[in-house]
Write a structure and sequence with these properties.
- It is a single chain.
- This protein is α/β, with parallel strands linked by helices.
- It folds into three domains: 245 residues, Beta-lactamase (3-Layer(aba) Sandwich), CATH 3.40.710; 105 residues, D-Ala-D-Ala carboxypeptidase C, peptidase S13 (D-tyrosyl-trna(Tyr) Deacylase, Chain: A); 73 residues, no CATH class.
- The strands form six sheets. It has a six-stranded antiparallel beta sheet with strand order 1-3-2-23-22-21, sandwiched between helices.
- Helix 3 runs antiparallel to helix 6, helix 3 packs parallel to helix 7 and helix 4 crosses helix 5.
- The radius of gyration is 26 Å and the shape is globular.
- This is D-alanyl-D-alanine carboxypeptidase/D-alanyl-D-alanine-endopeptidase.
- It holds the Pfam family Peptidase_S13.
- It comes from Metabacillus litoralis.
- Its EC number is 3.4.16.4.
């Protein structure tokens, strides 16, 4: 009897199809399928990792290829694809962030008798020149002094400054800047909550390099421990910020003929940073402050004096997506929460994000969304869901703004090529990929639009997790795109 059971078991196993994580559409011309599957299964650099590839027709939405496409993986900055789509849908391409100036006093005797309030409402693009413009408007109203306090109001959002899974080691990095409704940026890359540090070698070896901080404020203290060395030495500069302070330490060596290096560092207390810039603008424009400076809130009985409006959301999409700006992503999450539920928090924002994505036909019940930027290793999404999103939103009125915001392969202009400027620089892929990059420790991703070898528009998503060497991810993505487009591998 046991012998018959044994042979019956073998017979059943023989008839039962073995599990295959590859789905290939019955489209004869898509003959890259076998090569791509073989590459994903046999590439030594992928051994021990988890990879997923999803390909759809951009015209029909048909799933042409799916390798682990239904496996939830960490998307890194590919999460920004969902944030951008939801923000454009909910807020609209014309949406602007306002920064307001209020008072609880009155203009008289050539000045303002009462407190002056700077109310931030999330604008991540505020520059020193914008604060100057606000100060000039106040002076044009006859305000030459303020007999009262200068107060910064950041209550448009909650007071939680970091997303739940941001590593403590990222706190001083530009991509780990604090999220506040009142913030500022050093330049038109709009890295809100940061300052820029320019480091130029000294004219003689063994001397400290020249360090300049932008914007220039007494708020920051720089400890210059770095040394200029001969060209035979390597650049070993390191910039750090002491926790809980705005004390910066620059150490290491810089070769004497090195061009000026530009680095961005997050600041401590972004609300106070923005308020300090406005205080400086008041002083520079001849408005004397007779009172204290601090953080508070605008009283109910107050008068709006003037305001500044940001660039349109459609314009903000360019630095946000092309430069993969984490701060913009988290600001948009909180702004969606504020607009939809009157609560500028991550929890309210993520809920708003989910509801909008559902409206766009995204099966969010299969996703784990922890933030808007993708900095969390706990975000999870399927490659098939990413290609579904990218297919569905083609029908949206704002799709042109979304598509325009994606980095373009091999175009050496940071506001065109963005994070793809120095990738796919040779062959037929140059200029023919519009896609969002993603990178975390042991994670690499790339999702977007291109054409296959027949000239048909396709949508693709590549998610690579548990990589042993991070640098391998980008080359693997190149190889996969070459197999998809039949470019030379």
């Amino acid at each position: 009897m046991q012998k018959y059971v044994f042979f019956l078991t073998l017979f059943i196993l023989f008839l039962t199809p073995q599990f295959d994580n590859t789905t290939e559409a019955a489209v004869p011309q898509q003959n890259y399928n076998n090569k791509l599957t073989e590459y994903l299964r046999t590439n030594s650099k992928l051994k021990g990792s988890i990879s997923a590839v999803s390909i759809r027709s951009a015209s029909t939405g048909q799933l042409l290829y799916s390798y682990n496409g239904e496996t939830r993986l960490t998307p890194a900055s590919n999460m920004k694809l969902f944030t951008a789509a939801a923000a454009l849908e909910l807020l609209g391409p014309q949406y602007r962030f306002d920064t307001e100036i209020w008072t609880d006093g009155a203009i008289k005797w050539n000045g303002l008798v009462g407190n002056l309030y700077l109310k931030g409402k999330g604008d991540p693009t505020l520059l020193s020149k914008d604060f100057d413009q606000l100060a000039k408007r106040l002076k044009s109203k006859g305000i030459h002094y303020v007999c009262g306090d200068l107060v910064g109001d950041d209550t448009w959002y909650d007071d939680v400054r970091y997303s739940i899974d941001l590593p403590w080691s990222d706190e001083a990095e530009y991509y780990g800047a604090q999220i506040s409704a009142l913030t500022a940026a050093p330049d038109e890359d709009y890295d809100a909550g940061t300052i820029r540090i320019d480091i130029t070698p000294a004219k003689k070896e063994n001397e400290h390099p020249i360090i300049k901080v932008f914007p220039k404020l007494d708020l920051f203290k720089v400890h210059n421990l770095a040394t200029t060395v001969s060209n035979s030495e390597k650049n070993s500069l390191k910039i750090s910020r002491e926790h809980g302070t705005n004390e910066l330490i620059v150490e290491g060596e810089i070769p004497i003929e090195t061009e000026t290096l530009k680095e961005w560092v997050s600041v401590w207390d972004t609300s106070n940073y923005a308020l300090s810039l406005f205080e400086k603008s008041l002083k520079d424009n001849g408005i004397k402050l007779i009172g204290k400076t601090g953080i508070g809130s605008v009283p109910i009985k107050s008068e709006l004096l003037t305001k500044h409006s940001s660039i349109k959301l459609s314009e903000l999409m360019v630095p946000f997506m092309k430069l993969s700006n984490n701060t913009h992503a988290e600001v948009l999450i909180k702004e969606m929460g504020k607009v939809k539920g009157n609560e500028g928090s991550w929890s309210a924002g993520i809920q708003a994000d989910i509801e909008v994505l559902e409206k766009l036909g995204v099966p969010v019940q299969k996703m784990v969304i922890r933030d808007g930027s993708g900095v969390s290793h706990m975000n999870l999404v399927e490659a098939d869901i990413i290609t579904k999103l990218l297919y569905n939103i083609q029908a949206a009125k704002w799709f042109g703004d979304f598509y325009h915001s994606l980095p373009v392969s091999g175009v050496n202009d940071k506001l065109v090529g963005g994070t793809l400027a120095k990738r796919f620089t040779n062959g037929g892929l140059k200029g023919n990929i519009n896609a969002k990059t993603g990178s975390l420790t042991n994670v690499s991703s790339l999702s977007g639009y291109t054409k296959d070898k027949y000239g048909d528009n396709i949508i693709f998503s590549i998610l690579l997790n548990h990589l042993k060497e991070n640098q391998n991810g980008k080359q693997i993505e190149v190889d996969i795109l070459k197999l998809i487009t039949d470019d030379e591998l």
